[in-house]
Amino acid sequence: MKIAILDDFQDVVKDLDCFSLLRNHDVHIFTHGARGVGQLAVRLASFDAVVLIRERTAFSRTLLQKLPNLKLISQTGKVSGHIDLKAAAELGITIMEGVGDPTAPAELTWALIMASMRKIPQYVAYLREGLWQTASITPGNNTLGSVLKGRTLGIWGYGKIGKLVSGYGRAFGMHVLVWGSEAGRDRARADGIDVADSKEQFFASSDVLTLHLRLNDATRGCVQESDFLHMKPTGLFVNTSRAELIQPGALLAAVLRGQPAALDVFEMEPLAPESPFLHLANVLATPHLGYVEQSSYEIYFRAAFQNIVDYAVC
Q1: Rounded to whole angstroms, what are the CA distances from 235 to 126, 139, 149, 168, 313?
Q2: Distance between CA atoms of residues 88 and 95, nearest Å
Q3: pLDDT tens, 280-313?
Q4: 113-124 pLDDT, tens per residue?
């Protein structure tokens, strides 16, 4: 089969151990994204199969209709809303899901929390400029970091990732408070975790608040601008899940008011250099690294490549 692997921005897929699974196929790896349906259609016109790295490229009905040779989309991880499944079925294109692992995104979440609370990026940046124990050259902002022990960790979404983050919080002596679906709240109670009485209480009580939700019609835009107004001025908002969980404009308004945030996901990716999120001292931004990790890539791509191998011999 002629196979395209899209959006390998770091050019690392060819070096994975599992890449050998495709040794009998004609594989082309694209390390730069294409913008627009027209560009993608030209790029992919001759391919039988496409491997997607999570949701980096969307496959709309319009795009799928322009790819008459496409027989298979092999997804790393689970399929989200980036593929028009109905259109694919109508066009006879097979969609194969992969598997995931919660470890890397949970660990990144904790790294962002630790770095933000202790102001590590700020201290490191000024140390490189020769300034010792300096978090800001503005006197009012040159404040101390904070420990986590004794503070409240709010987790919205008590699934596999949320449960891991909860364990990290408890290991650091934090009080864990959960909000989310009824099923998620029930799981938290069964594990002995406190559940907030309301969303308002959840936002108001959290010293660190982190999102761990799937993006779907029920969760899209579920964090409203009014929710940020309930937060403590020092409360850290963390999002390693999906930017679309937040009402458009609500997060930017909050950080412009001074709300601290640690963000790994954005509405438009890659994030534009002029984005305010990259130029605010109260925001720690990372380039969607939640699943971008060696062991995770081996898990994701092994499943995606094996799906292709199995499809090819059917």
Answers
A1: 24, 21, 15, 18, 54
A2: 8
A3: 999 999 999 999 999 999 999 999 999 999 999 8
A4: 999 999 999 999
Count CB neighbours of 294 within 10 A: 12
Number of neighbours of residue 219 by Cβ within 10 angstroms:
19
Show which residues are catalytic: 242, 269, 288
- The dihedral region occupied by 150, where left means phi > 0, alpha psi between -120 and 50, and beta the remainder, is left
Gap between the Cα atoms of 107 and 116, Å rounded: 14
Is the sign of the CA dihedral 164, 107, 262, 216 positive or negative? negative
Say yes or no to pLDDT of 35 above 80.
no
> Residues in the chain, how many?
314
Instruction: For residue 210, give the nearest of 116, 124, 275 by alpha carbon.
Output: 116
- What DSSP character marks residue 59? B
d(C-alpha 117, C-alpha 209), whole Å: 12
DSSP characters over 147-197: --TTSEEEEE--SHHHHHHHHHHHHTTPEEEEES-HHHHHHHHHTT-EE-S
The yes-or-no verdict on residue 206 having pLDDT over 90 is yes
CB 9 within 8 A of CB 34: no
Q: How much is the average pLDDT of 13-18?
A: 98
At 3, phi and psi to the nearest 5? -120, 135
The per-residue pLDDT for range 156-185, each reduced to its tens digit, is: 999 999 999 999 999 999 999 999 999 999
Summary mean pLDDT of the chain: 96
Structure-block tokens of residue 274: 């002029």
Angle formed at CA 220 by CA 219 and CA 223, multiple of 5 degrees:
80
